[in-house]
Amino acid sequence: MDRKMYEPTEKLLNKYPRSIADGIDLPSDEEFKARWTRAHHGKSAGWGIAKRDYILNQMTKMREYQIGIWQGRVDKARGLAYSEDRNENAYNLGYHRGYTEYESNRRGWDENTRREFDQKYLN
Question: Where are the alpha helices (DSSP H) in the chain?
Answer without folding.
Answer: 10-15, 29-39, 47-59, 63-77, 89-100, 102-108, 111-121
